[in-house]
Design a protein that fits this description.
By secondary structure, the protein is an alpha/beta fold. It contains 20 helices and ten strands. Helices cover 63% and strands 9% of the residues. The structure holds adenosine-5'-diphosphate and magnesium ion.
Length: 596
């Protein structure tokens, strides 16, 4: 895929540029298509089972006739046994094949959705609730199985059986068939009335399940704060409310499903009595004989099952359509193109040069500008510090370099080439990024370090551990590098988490190292050590730091003071203290205070 095809100009994830939703049935067909052979097999097996069900009564009638006439019955009996044997295999096998196919469809849908979610653009994630997105992968995809099995196959086999039965009935007496069909059409009218309500209720139910996931994720994700704030009960109420909404909506769906099913049931009874009345009159007038009327009435009952499966298919389709709509909604969130990461570099790569040229940026059209013409240059090698009040847009600078967002105007050049023209994997492979409050992922310490450099050699790992002052910690741990760190690294201290994040970035041997307040939680000893590390790294790579400690900033080869969306001044510490009042003030208060 071309490098630029992914990110579009900053727009909301549900923005107007999103492609229009395809109708649910078309999307479902897309999910079903790869499994069409299996669906065909499952459908055929269901049809065989149904056909044998239809044929058996005829065979019984034949058998009884032969018995009465004193003819041999063995051949008929053998045929019947064979038929029963066929259904004993085709019945369960059909159920298994369809179920299995349904699960394969669920699997494919889950994989597809997960691949998309992991590539979502950051702007889409800004607006999304992770818990809600998760529910689309876990709960909504499950409903696709019903669409594949009950709905599609139920509709096809139901329709075939109804047609077959109606054909036989038409041969027996076309007039009675017309009467039966008239009643059935009425039943379907009621069902059609109920189905949109089932659809709407299912949508609401699944939306509430998503809301419940989001509410639960919010509470469990901040359980310490929830406990410390005594907010368990209030969070509980939020989750319970969403669960209650899901219940209410599902009950509403069940009500309309029952009404639809009831209408079908009623129609069958009405059809039976109407056929009995009209058929009786026709027998009286000599149009048909009693035997035909009895056979016809039997077939009205034979219609029950396929009609029910047709109606079941319609209602399952409604539930499935609601799920498909939610899956599609998530799949329409803007994502980056899926591109394989570049192979690991064999040699240490040259440090990169960076330039911001009149960069303008805002997070959304209705939000104020963060950057209003930011311009600065960073030569290869050395350390550049970014300084400015909180909210000045320092973190945003790094996000733009990583292309988590696209600037509205201006350009960002890495090695003289606009980052927009870089392939995303190549661009990100060149950068080591320690984000502000960099998370440690659940798993082992080793998993965390290898996240961005899965093929790193053991000796590189050792070296980086030393550099990040983690070797002491690892030596203490009974499981060493294989120690599990808990969800978001809760088993580590804040400073340890920061050092893990720094080690993770260093292991990538980046050409450009971005450290966003990466030392804010370190104690004085570790901070001094890492200051050395950063200075050392700056000898071979280009280092950009957002630092809040004067001691780190003074080491920088250049300091960029950023405020009110523009660069206020660039220089060394000594130059800026003399020339820039904002820097002088920051240096005099915030930095000094921080270093104590
Ligand atoms: P700094 O790192 O200098 O403290 P940031 O770059 O994090 O500042 O933020 C700059 C401004 O952009 C702030 O006003 C902040 O509220 C806003 N902002 C940051 N991230 C987002 C976002 N994802 N969506 C909307 N506004 C944001
Ligand atoms: Mg910041």
């Amino acid at each position: 895929a071309p490098a630029r095809s992914g990110p579009a100009p900053a727009a909301g994830p549900s923005g107007d540029d999103a492609p229009r939703a395809a109708p649910a049935w078309r999307v479902m067909l897309r999910y079903l298509r790869p499994s069409w052979r299996w669906l065909l097999l499952g459908g055929a097996l269901s049809l065989v089972t149904g056909a044998v069900g239809l044929a058996l009564p005829l065979a019984v009638r034949h058998l009884v006739a032969r018995l009465a006439a004193g003819e041999p019955t063995t051949p008929v009996l053998l045929v019947m046994v064979a038929l029963v044997l066929v259904t004993l295999v085709s019945g369960p096998l059909g159920v298994y094949v369809l179920r299995r196919t349904g699960e394969s469809i669920v699997l494919a849908a889950r994989r597809r959705l997960v691949s998309h979610l992991l590539r979502l653009r950051i702007c889409a994630v800004d607006h999304a609730e992770p818990g809600d997105l998760m529910s689309r992968v876990t709960s909504d995809t499950t409903l696709l199985r019903q669409v594949a099995t009950e709905s599609l196959v139920g509709a096809v086999t139901g329709a075939v059986m109804v047609l077959a039965t109606c054909t036989v009935m038409g041969l027996l007496d076309p007039v009675l068939l017309a009467v039966t069909l008239a009643v059935l059409v009425l039943a379907f009218a009621v069902v059609r009335l109920a189905m949109p309500r089932v659809n709407r209720a299912s949508r609401e139910a699944q939306k509430s399940v998503g809301a419940m996931g989001a509410a639960l994720e919010r509470a469990l994700g901040a359980l310490r704060t929830v406990k410390a704030s005594g907010a368990e009960h209030r969070e509980e109420v939020l989750v319970h409310r969403a669960a209650g909404d899901a219940w209410r909506a599902s009950v509403r769906a069940a009500r309309w499903l029952a009404i639809g099913g009831g209408a079908a049931e009623t129609a069958m009874q009405v059809a039976f009595f109407t056929v009995l009345a009209v058929g009786g009159a026709r027998v009286a007038s000599g149009a048909i004989d009693v035997a035909t009327l009895i056979a016809f009435l039997m077939y009205v009952y034979y219609l029950v099952l396929p009609v029910q499966s047709l109606i079941g298919a319609l209602s399952q389709y409604q539930v499935g359509a609601a799920a498909v709509a939610r899956i599609q909604e998530a799949e329409r969130l803007p994502a980056e193109p899926p591109v394989a990461p570049p192979p690991p570099r064999a040699t240490v790569a040259a440090p990169a040069a960076l330039e911001f040229r009149d960069v303008h940026f805002r997070y959304a059209p209705h939000l104020p500008d963060v950057h209003r013409g930011v311009t600065f240059t960073v030569p290869p090698r050395g350390m550049t510090a970014f300084v400015g009040p909180s909210g000045a847009g320092k973190t945003t600078l790094f996000s733009l370099i990583e292309r988590f967002y696209e600037p509205a105007a201006g350009s960002i050049l890495l090695d003289g080439r606009d980052v927009a023209d870089w392939g995303l994997p190549e661009l990100r492979a060149a950068i080591g990024y320690v984000e502000q409050d960099a998370p440690v992922l659940s798993g082992s310490l080793r998993d965390n370090l290898l996240l961005g450099a899965p093929h790193a050699a053991e000796e590189d790992l050792r070296r980086v551990l030393e550099t990040a002052r983690l070797d002491g910690l690892v030596a203490q741990l009974p499981d060493g590098l294989d120690t599990l760190v808990g969800h978001r690294g809760t088993k580590l201290s804040g400073g340890e988490r920061q050092r893990v994040a720094i080690a993770r970035a260093l292991l990538r041997r980046p050409r450009l190292l971005l450290l966003d307040e990466a030392t804010s939680q370190l104690d004085a000893v570790n901070e001094a050590a890492l200051r050395e590390t950063v200075a050392e790294a700056a000898l071979t790579t280009t280092v950009l730091v957002v630092a809040h400690r004067l001691s780190t900033v003074t080491l920088a080869d250049q300091i960029v003071v950023i405020d009110a969306g523009v660069v206020q001044a660039v220089g060394t510490h000594t130059e800026l203290v003399a020339a820039d009042p904002l820097y002088a003030e920051l240096a005099a208060t915030q930095f000094l205070a921080a270093t104590g």
